[in-house]
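User: For my dataset I need records formatted as: sequence, then structure tokens, nothing else. Please produce one.
Assistant:
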Amino acid sequence: MIEKCFAVTIILLLSACALIETAAPPSTKTKIGAILPLSGDWSYFGSEIVKGIDLYIENADCSFVIEDSKFESKDSISAFKKLVEINEVNYVFGPFGPELSGAVYFFQTSDDKETVTLVGFSTWAEEFRKYENMLCLYPSPLYQMRKSFPYVQQEGLKTFHLIVAEGAQGQLLQNIMSGISEEYDLTFKKSKIDTTNTEFHTITSRAMQEKPDFILLATIDHATNFKLVKEFKEKGYAGKLIIPSDVEEKQVQEFKDILERTCVFEHFLCNFVNNWILS
């Protein structure tokens, strides 16, 4: 399943590469920079994109300079600075995610915005509309989340508790869920969580007291989501647990015992929804 997501992403990337080559002056070999997570969280994603790039450049008149973002803002900025100032690229793919893409965008100088085109591996957040020189490969979080909710409707679920991470990303998801709840006539309450904590007793107890039909674990941090699933099950929660974020298939298999009877939507890298109902 996850391979389909990588295929979609790589196809989008390579289509963009072809457009860049077409726009380049004749007899000019295009140099393209890429900021990818080659270590740390999402390193698997980065390594798969590199494989796609390697296949593309075998028959393309362009070259790539690839830097490691380590899935960190400061490392993404350092990578961008090196690509532009030392490698002198005019096109940069990456980094991955709206937070890192935004960090790189706001680091740019006014000259960078005139000479560099950024193509972010990121969901299309509303604030990106005003970005002068950045394109994004993925649809908006609103579109993605909406694609998940026919399942909720089919199951006849009406009330839920939303758990998101503290910060801008959590607020964005909360706002999105407010709109979707009105659209699907759902009622929800929310909790914000510090993903660096290891103790979630208060959050899980409060959520269970409301007796919601389902709990939406949308922290975007796999370790936190898995810990929450484990704690809810240990406390005897009988409703449905849903993780609406991309989880690698190997993680699903590794944590199969914990994730049993949990619905995992694999959609943040695709325009469509696949899901595993583990039993």
